[in-house]
User: Which sequence fits this backbone?
């Protein structure tokens, strides 16, 4: 329990308050900003958010944080990451600069499989230590909740080890970790000639075990030409639902027809990537209430130009999400402020739309919109005191060294470095 705390002298309190559902259309720009504001926090939850005069009239507790006239926003909710892994792929980064494509590197045994090799070789404690470092990078940029995927094991022992590391990270805090089973990330070398057997193993053996151990909330599949087919993805995701896991899906990253329609068919929580998605796909996703999770960091880091058509999605009424896709290969980007900048500069989002997509809508995509994502009475007090006076500066100062003060459940995170 954190007791009582007041945050005063807030120049701009960006509450992102509003309807209790994902935001669409013009709602993405409605941030419900309160000038000259204050927050009152009781035992880790928001007791009141309003003008300083209003909060002061309720009586201020002894513990007070002075925001110094700066902007306060909800903490970032990063709804697509691969935080837990060993090693790095700096060599492949150099290869891409020299002209090699993502697919060429993967075909030569690099890509995901090179991280699989390193992660399989790491002990649980070593993997935990490395993952703490990744988590701390994200914390320093203002991420207070992160969805984290497995998928660098591709066999029982390492997949479960990754999920246990996520559980340990979540238990030690301060960041909330939402675990996702992604054993269907790519086909491991030992199953290249036995694809069907690997898919059945995930669906019939690994999935039930991970679910029974309560190590995963979601199941994800990478549906693409060099990963899993639509039919294979359907097998895995159908089994996941049977065992009580909610569904997410990597879809349409490199080619249309690779998974978005399946996400709509199965009414998955999210369809992630969607760089090559079509207008017809947008309508199907909207009708099925599937949230697009857009990952401009991977487009940027791979040196590509086909950013997800975020502007068109907003205009078609989709409840978009922005996330980092932090991983050692295609998006070694831990900074959500930089992702907001890419969303604005490369995808035509306004700063308000980008912020809503990275907080409130991201929270709903994880099934947590009733407890985080906005600064409203009763919600967990996850918030950032930025170095800026205006929320637009978060995206405007691209790759700035600015670091917010990070509060999770009303307690300031002790950030290293």
Assistant:
């Amino acid at each position: 329990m954190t007791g009582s705390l007041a945050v005063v002298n807030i120049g701009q309190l960006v509450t992102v308050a509003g309807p209790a559902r994902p935001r669409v259309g013009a709602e993405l720009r409605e941030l419900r900003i309160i000038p000259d504001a204050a927050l009152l926090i009781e035992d880790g939850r928001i007791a009141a958010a309003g003008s300083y005069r209003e909060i002061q009239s309720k009586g201020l507790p002894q513990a007070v944080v002075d925001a110094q006239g700066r902007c306060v926003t909800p903490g970032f909710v990063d709804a697509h990451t691969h935080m837990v892994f060993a090693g790095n792929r700096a060599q492949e980064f150099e290869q891409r600069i020299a002209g090699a494509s993502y697919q060429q590197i993967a075909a030569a045994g690099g890509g995901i499989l090179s991280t699989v090799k390193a992660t399989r070789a790491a002990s649980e404690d070593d993997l935990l230590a490395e993952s703490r470092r990744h988590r701390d990078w994200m914390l320093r940029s203002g991420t207070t909740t992160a969805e984290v995927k497995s998928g660098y094991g591709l066999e029982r022992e390492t997949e479960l080890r990754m999920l246990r590391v996520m559980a340990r990270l979540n238990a030690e805090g301060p960041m909330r970790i939402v675990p996702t089973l992604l054993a269907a990330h790519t086909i491991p070398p030992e199953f290249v000639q036995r694809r069907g057997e690997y898919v059945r193993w995930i669906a019939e053996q690994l999935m039930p075990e991970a679910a029974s151990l309560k190590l995963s909330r979601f199941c994800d599949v990478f549906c693409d030409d060099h990963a899993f087919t639509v039919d294979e993805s359907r097998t895995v995701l159908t089994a996941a639902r049977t065992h009580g896991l909610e569904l997410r899906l990597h879809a349409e990253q490199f080619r249309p027809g690779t998974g978005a329609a399946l996400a709509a068919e199965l009414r998955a929580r999210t369809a992630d990537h969607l760089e090559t998605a079509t207008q017809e796909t947008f309508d199907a996703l909207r009708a099925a209430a599937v949230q697009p999770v857009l990952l401009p960091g991977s487009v940027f880091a791979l040196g590509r130009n086909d950013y997800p058509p975020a502007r068109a999605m907003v205009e078609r009424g989709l409840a978009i999400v922005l996330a980092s896709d932090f991983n050692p290969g295609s998006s070694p980007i831990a900074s959500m402020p930089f992702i907001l900048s890419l969303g604005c500069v490369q995808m035509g989002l306004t700063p308000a739309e980008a912020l809503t997509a990275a907080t409130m809508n991201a929270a709903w995509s994880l099934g947590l919109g009733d407890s985080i994502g906005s600064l409203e009475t009763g919600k967990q007090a996850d918030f950032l005191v930025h170095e800026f006076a205006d929320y637009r500066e978060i995206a405007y100062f691209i790759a700035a060294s600015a670091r917010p003060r990070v509060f999770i459940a009303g307690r300031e995170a002790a950030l290293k470095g």
